[in-house]
Each structure stands twice: as C-alpha cells, then as structure tokens.
C-alpha cells in the first residue's frame, strides 16, 4: 500500500512532463551521439544538473531516481561518459548549434542578431589542473574596485538574442596553456565562422562590446549576408570622413567627429533595470567613415541616453540612410545584454558552472556543453510550457506572489529542482523506508 501511495504522489508531480520535455529538447544533441546509452546519459546529466543546480558529479548523482540506480552507479555513468573516446566535445557543441537552428527555424525572425562575448570563469583554489590559466575578473572586484587576476579558464559563446528562447551558435571553454590555443582573436574568428556555418541562409547581424573594436574583426564580419554593430573603444584613432562640399575624403580623429555630431532624431525607449522599467530619451546622430588604408565604408552611430547621461558610440557596416534604420541598430545593439544575463544564470545563483570538478580540459568542455544545454532548457520551458504550469513551478520554487517579483529563470529553476529532487526522495523511500521503529522507546 505504501508503494502504491508513493507512486500516486509522484504521479501528481510534473515529473514525467519534465523528463519528456528534457528528452525532446535535447534530441538534436543526443541524435549526434553514436550509441543509445550515451544519449541516455546526456538526458540524465541535464536532468540532474537542473535537479541539483550544480555540475559537480557527486552532487548531481543524488538527483537520480533510486528505482533506476543508486548514487554511485549514476556517478560512474557520468564519469565514463566524460572519458568515452567514441566522441568528443565537438559533438556536444554541434548539438547545441542544432538546437539553435531549430529555435530560429520555429520563430523565423527576419534576421538573427548574434551576440559574441568572451567571459572568464574563476577557479580560485586551482593551481595544478590541466591548462589552468591566469584570467582577469571584474566580479567581484578587488579592494580598490578594479579588475583582479585570478586562476581560471576563459570561454566564449555566440548566442542568438533576438528570439524568445536564446540559442547557442558557438561555444568553447579553452585555456591559454594548451596546444590548441592560438589567440583570443582566433576564438572570435571561429565564433564568426561557425555562426555563418550554422545559419548559412540567414542574414546575420553580429553585436559585440568594445572587445570587438578591431579592424581584423571588421574584416571577418564583412561577408555576404553579415552585418555588425560594435562599440567603438579607440576614439583617438584616425579615420577618413567624406567632405561633401569639397568632394573628398579627409582625415580626422574619431573623437572630434563624435563630439560635434548633430542630433538627427530623438525618441523614447524603455530600459529595464533592477526589476523596474525606466523611460529614457535617446538622441541619435550618425555619419559615414572609412578606416585609413581601406575602402570599406562604415557608419558611426552616436546615441545619447539621458537616463545614464552618456553616449554609446557604435560602428557598423550597415548604411544608415534613415531614422528608422538608426533606431533599429541601437535596439539590436541593446539586445547584447541578454548574453550577460545568460552568463549570470550559468555561473552565479543559477547552475554554478565555475564549480566544474574534473581534471582535464576535455572533460570541462563536455560538462560546459551540458550546463549550457540545461540553462537553455529553462528558458525554453518559460516560453513553451503553458503559463499556468510555469506559474505552478515558480510558486513551488519560492515565488512570493508580490508585484515586485521578478519572473525570470531563477524561481523556475528552483521549482524544477524541487520536483526532480522530490521524485528522487520518494523513490528512495519506496525501496528503503526510514527505520522509524528504532526511535520507539519504553
């Protein structure tokens, strides 16, 4: 009777719905793997990362249903998966790219906006792991509020940011010390090249922060059906600007041109910060330049935000011929912030990707791919499950029901975790009841 009651209780949880959704979501990734058992391990890993909110294998194993396996058996399956020589991390990354292709195919935007952003993951107590590098970290800063040097690993992702569900079209966890590392610029080039391979028939608009302000990057992105919007960081550079009156190109400092640009349009835009919406007035002006020694025309958009009282200086290969184009360019560049939100979800109060406790770069890369898949699944669930079901999971995860609640991925992750861990606990109780009789006295 007890086992029947526990089975009925588990049936009331959305346990099977979650497992089915995870399996369906990961199908483009698992289909690449050469064996059915490996595909099952991918589903198991992602499910347990969501259950325990960590990529630590020993901790992940407690999220498995005890009817299927005990903790040590589940952990061994993951360890063997990370060491299996029949595939490598490229297969898992390619699976992420196929998931992104499916997302874009389903939502079918007019063009894809892809944010490329390097990030450094810190492992502060690591000194002897393979490829451990010295990286720069700004969060948390040092005692003077500046960036600090720490032990860790650099990584880079390219994400589609103009769809409801983000999609990964390039990912790599790398090391400055391993033989396959050439340079960070080479990683950016690979991100561009891979994104073009993932979306060969779509117009791509790359957006980057100031780290992309490099003439080589401009050349890599200046391909058919490719556009870019990049923050200008080298304002002291010399550029050529066209003089209509004298019908010639003249050399000027970019900063001088930015300082005297006339505002052509003014409009209002909504900024979301700290759980609140803020209305800002944007003034924008633009002009056309080209870099010395090149014949590639570029547009410079200067947008002043009165909320923060600062200018955004953006370089793009899109010809700005109207106010509508200028406003769209600024809106697309603002989407770049979504990749920062994704990183925070991956590493801070979300899935704690920095806590990878494996000893080789190859295993780290495989786990990195699985953590990215788990994070993307949470965003997928937010958009594709019925709203009442998502609300139920958020309430289970600790949603307070106040107007100030931020209905992002964190409460949803907590709810998913609660369902999966509850099912694992009940399955253990079904086969190994707690010895209540040992507490009887008298």
Explain what this protein looks like in three dimensions.
It is elongated and about 100 Å long. The protein has helices at 2-12, 15-30, 36-52, 57-60, 71-83, 89-107, 184-198, 215-221, 254-259, 323-334, 337-347, 361-384, 387-396, 409-431, and strands at 112-122, 133-137, 148-160, 167-173, 204-208, 226-231, 238-243, 248-253, 265-273, 276-290, 297-305, 310-316. The protein is built from 14 helices and twelve strands. A hairpin with a 4-residue loop joins strand 11 and strand 12 (310-316). With 442 residues, it is of the alpha+beta class. Strands 1, 2, 3, 4, 5, 6, 7, 8, 9, 10, 11 and 12 form a twelve-stranded mixed beta sheet that branches.
Topology:
Blueprint: H1 2-12, H2 15-30, H3 36-52, H4 57-60, H5 71-83, H6 89-107, E1 112-122, E2 133-137, E3 148-160, E4 167-173, H7 184-198, E5 204-208, H8 215-221, E6 226-231, E7 238-243, E8 248-253, H9 254-259, E9 265-273, E10 276-290, E11 297-305, E12 310-316, H10 323-334, H11 337-347, H12 361-384, H13 387-396, H14 409-431
Parallel strand pairs: 1-5, 5-6
Antiparallel strand pairs: 1-3, 2-3, 3-4, 6-12, 7-8, 7-10, 9-10, 10-11, 11-12
Molecular shape:
elongated
First CA to last CA: what distance? 28 Å
Helical percentage: 40-55%
* Fraction in beta strands: 15-25%
The secondary structure category is alpha+beta
Count the strands?
12
Gyration radius, rounded:
25 Å
Helix-strand sequence: HHHHHHEEEEHEHEEEHEEEEHHHHH
Point out poorly predicted stretches. Answer: none
Number of helices: 14
Overall mean pLDDT score?
90
Largest sheet: 12 strands, mixed
């Amino acid at each position: 009777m007890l086992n029947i009651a526990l089975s009925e209780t588990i049936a009331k949880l959305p346990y099977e719905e979650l497992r089915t959704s995870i399996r369906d979501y990961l199908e483009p990734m698992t289909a690449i793997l050469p064996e059915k058992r490996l595909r099952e391990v991918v589903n198991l890993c992602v499910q347990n990362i969501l259950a325990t909110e960590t990529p630590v294998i020993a901790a992940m194993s407690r999220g498995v249903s005890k009817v299927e396996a005990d903790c040590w058996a589940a952990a061994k399956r993951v360890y063997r998966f990370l060491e299996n020589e029949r595939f490598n991390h490229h297969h898992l990354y390619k699976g992420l790219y196929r998931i992104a292709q499916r997302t874009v195919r389903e939502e079918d935007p007019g063009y894809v906006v892809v944010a490329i952003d390097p990030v450094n993951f810190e492992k502060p107590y690591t000194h002897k792991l393979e490829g451990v590098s010295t990286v720069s970290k700004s969060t948390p800063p040092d005692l003077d509020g500046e960036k600090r040097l720490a032990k860790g690993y650099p990584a880079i992702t390219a994400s589609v940011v103009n769809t409801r569900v983000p999609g990964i079209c390039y990912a790599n966890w790398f090391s400055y010390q391993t033989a396959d590392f050439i340079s960070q610029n080479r990683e950016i080039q690979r991100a561009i090249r891979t994104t073009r391979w993932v979306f060969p028939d779509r117009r791509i608009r790359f957006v980057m922060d100031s780290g992309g302000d490099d003439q080589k990057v401009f050349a890599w992105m200046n391909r058919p059906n490719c556009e870019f919007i990049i923050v200008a960081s080298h304002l002291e550079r010399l550029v050529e600007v066209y003089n209509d009156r004298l019908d010639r190109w003249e050399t000027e400092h970019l900063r001088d041109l930015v300082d005297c640009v006339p505002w052509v349009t003014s409009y209002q835009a909504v900024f979301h910060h700290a759980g609140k919406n803020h209305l800002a007035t944007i003034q924008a002006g633009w002009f056309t330049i080209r870099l010395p020694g090149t014949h590639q025309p570029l547009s410079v958009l200067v947008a002043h935000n009165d909320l923060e009282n600062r200018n955004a200086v953006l370089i793009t290969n899109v010809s700005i011929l109207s106010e509508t184009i200028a406003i769209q360019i600024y809106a697309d560049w603002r989407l770049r912030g979504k990749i920062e939100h994704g990183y925070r979800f991956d590493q801070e109060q979300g899935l704690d990707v920095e806590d990878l406790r494996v000893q080789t770069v190859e295993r780290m890369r495989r786990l990195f791919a699985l953590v990215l898949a788990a994070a993307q699944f949470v965003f997928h669930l937010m958009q594709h499950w019925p709203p009442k079901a998502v609300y139920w999971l958020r309430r289970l995860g600790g949603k307070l029901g106040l107007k100030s609640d931020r209905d992002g991925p964190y409460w949803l992750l907590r709810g998913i975790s609660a369902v999966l861990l509850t099912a694992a606990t009940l399955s253990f109780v079904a086969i190994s009841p707690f010895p209540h009789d040992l507490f009887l006295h008298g």
